[in-house]
Amino acid sequence: MSFVNPESEIYFRSGLAKSAFKSTIYQDFPLDYYLQGINDTSKLLYQLKLFKSKFYQSHDAFLMHYKPYDVVYKSLKKSNQAAPLWNRIIQEAVNNKDFYDLNKITQNSYELMHL
To answer: Domain coordinates of the chain in residue numbers?
Structure first.
């Protein structure tokens, strides 16, 4: 299993430098473990005509709901020069009480991992 190194070229090419989360969001699993859920999130956002998401946006949307709140909160970047507006949007969402309540329901959800 390979973990994504934040210093690697693939990290930047995939757009993950724009992610609002540090690599600690993955915990003990590699990015590969979450790819199906990330791809399904991207497809769902597109089918619902919400927006055609970039990889890092689907990545963040999936992981912020799938991972437990304490992991999400601790993994949130304080700032992100690559995508400051996106980082702010995710920070605002994570700091919202409604998101906290929703995350209690969606964290580690089998259904979310297998849309």
So the answer is: 18-113
